[in-house]
Amino acid sequence: MIPEQVLDRVHWNDHGLVPAIAQDHVSGKVLMLAWMNREALLCTLTERRAVYWSRSRGRLWRKGEESGHVQRLHDIRLDCDADAILLSVEQVGGIACHTGRESCFFLGPGDDGWQEMDAVTKDPQQIYGGSHA
Amino acid sequence: MIPEQVLDRVHWNDHGLVPAIAQDHVSGKVLMLAWMNREALLCTLTERRAVYWSRSRGRLWRKGEESGHVQRLHDIRLDCDADAILLSVEQVGGIACHTGRESCFFLGPGDDGWQEMDAVTKDPQQIYGGSHA
Question: What pTM, to 2 d.p., does this model score?
Fold first, then answer.
């Protein structure tokens, strides 16, 4: 059972969401930032895997539901202002990004704008066929 | 000179902001999540230190301007959707949080709600006197 206080203390924004950072629990690599609503946080805590709210699809998004790249929960933290969450996870498959990279943070600033700094680990077509999640 | 494309590509939200995660460049510890507007990102890139937009104060916030706990920029990344930023920083003083802790993410879920999991490194009164930043 997850105490109601855990959900109540979070400062949900005007859309009922809070940003959640996923970090690899071994390497410390920051994998992605996504969003949670109250139900997503509850599911994350009870299912011990990262569950987000997909703003584009307007529904819960169990990370890895299509790709198999589930994020198993090791630890979860709330910040001092209660408006950001940090997940420490095991990234199944070693790929968090829909582009087939370990981390979504692969763009670095260059002379012509943001450049791809990390190579693709696995072709997204092999991961998803047609869709992605 | 920072190319305009670097600022233009970011997907600023309805408030003209983007979430920015600060991570210690050596330990990999996630220190905090704050927000940047276009000017804050430009200042971060040109001054090579973390500059945020303080939503509570409605002005630019040069991290460490009162505390001395400046975040020197080592690397910066944008994510695949261009709506989140990751800063790799040297955290001067080893304290990012206004509570006197290394990281703002010090609350973990317990039977009675979120519990303080990390001890205070330095008394905030010693850091700020009266105010904080």
Answer: 0.95
